[in-house]
Amino acid sequence: MRGPVSDRPMISIVDDDETARGGTMDLVRSMGFAAQAFSCGEDFLAFDQLPRTACLIADVRMPGMSGLELYNRLRQSGQFIPTILMTAFPTERDRRRALSAGVLCYLAKPFRDDELLECVGAAINSDLAPPENNGAGSDTQP
Questions:
Q1: Percentage of residues in the chain with pLDDT exceeding 70?
Q2: How many other C-beta atoms lie within 10 A of the C-beta of residue 48?
Q3: How far is the C-alpha of 34 from the C-alpha of 27, rounded, in Å?
Q4: DSSP assignment, residue 79?
Q5: 127 falls in which pLDDT band (50, 70, 90)?
Q6: How many angstroms separate the CA atoms of 42 and 39, rounded?
Q7: Which fold has domain 8-133?
Q8: Among 20, 34, 64, 70, which has the minimal tally of Cβ within 10 Å of its Cβ?
Q9: pTM of the predicted protein model
Q10: What is the DSSP annotation of 16-60?
Q11: What is the maximum alpha-carbon separation in the chain?
Q12: Predicted pLDDT of residue 123
């Protein structure tokens, strides 16, 4: 995936752990996506290019707003961004809650690179991704 960064799908990463955030951003960028990272949900919500986000990757447990709370807040405000939640503390209860709320993927840390990239691919090709950023041409039919 080459071309100007502004033409590439934007993946936003929200994780309070700087190492995890940086590693996830590096992986996403290595696949040719534009990436933006945030240390908390509040910073992401204030991002002036939030509507350009084609996929959100967020940690479940963070100080302040959790990843699931961030997802729910986006939906309540009319922002439907395909979302991947990741956590170092997976529980079946949290997984069920996230998936039933509409989260696309729920990954346990550490996850394999291919697991995350498969979820990102599904998000980019989702009907929820912004049309200009999902890799589909304007004449492409679902």
A1: 85
A2: 6
A3: 11
A4: -
A5: confident
A6: 9
A7: Rossmann fold (3.40.50)
A8: 64
A9: 0.86
A10: S-HHHHHHHHHHHHHTT-EEEEESSHHHHHT-TTGGGEEEEEEES
A11: 43
A12: 95
Residue ranges of domains in the chain:
8-133
Q: CB of 87 within 8 A of CB of 69?
A: no
CA distances from 76 to 39, 52, 81, 92, 105 (A): 22, 18, 12, 25, 20
How far apart, in whole angstroms, are the C-alpha atoms of residue 16 and residue 25? Answer: 13
pLDDT at 137: 32
Residues with Cβ within 8 Å of 37's Cβ and at least 6 positions away in sequence, in order, are: 12, 13, 14, 15, 21, 22, 24, 25
H or E segment and range at residue 84: strand 83-87
In this prediction, residue 7 has a pLDDT band, given cuts at 50, 70 and 90, of confident
